[in-house]
What we know:
Blueprint: H1 17-35, H2 43-58, E1 60-62, E2 69-71, H3 75-82, H4 86-101, H5 109-132, H6 137-163, H7 169-178, H8 180-200
Antiparallel strand pairs: 1-2
Amino acid sequence: MSFPLLAVHLSDGALTEAWLAAGFGGLAVLLLIAMWKVREEEVPRIGVLTAAFFVASSIHIKLAVLPTSVHLILNGLVGVVLGRRAPLAVTVGLALQYLLLSHGGLTTIGINACIVGVPALAAGAAYPVLRRLGVSPFVRGAVLGGGAAAGAVVLNFLVLLFGGKEDWQTLARLVLLAHVPVVVIEGLMLGVLVSYLEKVKPEMLGSQNPVPDTPKDPNDAAW
């Protein structure tokens, strides 16, 4: 079996059928939550974050200390900007990576989307909480960017450990080791982005699908 070493996106043939089915079941729940009452004005933002996730996850970086490569995930950025819409960007991005680049697998799209999407949702939910607590923008971004990436790596580790068709213990441990620099880079990157966006466009961050302004005067509704 051809299995790409250390890829966060698991390939076909790596997991048992039960875990594959559970992945699609979990993805169905995530997508139902994400698609609930999507507004037309949200679509461009979802598209931009989908493209960013697709491109970042498609660029592989060679590691000098290990015979493999890793890539950025950006699920922290996707979660902080899109909130509960994050699974839409993640799922479309993963599907495009498989169809266009053969990265990941068809049967593992469900479990891969859960691995990447669940930490993204957690980051989106945590952002407004950290903001209300007065945590500085850079620290907010660094914690959630690194935390979301680490969450995806840990979930990938657990899935390999408990759901693999073969004994992937060594591979699972190498996944954790190889992605330590990715976690650090993603934390620093999102810290800088959040610091910038908080100054120029704070409404983009930590918003769980804000409701458009409504007229205060009932007579204005006719306009």
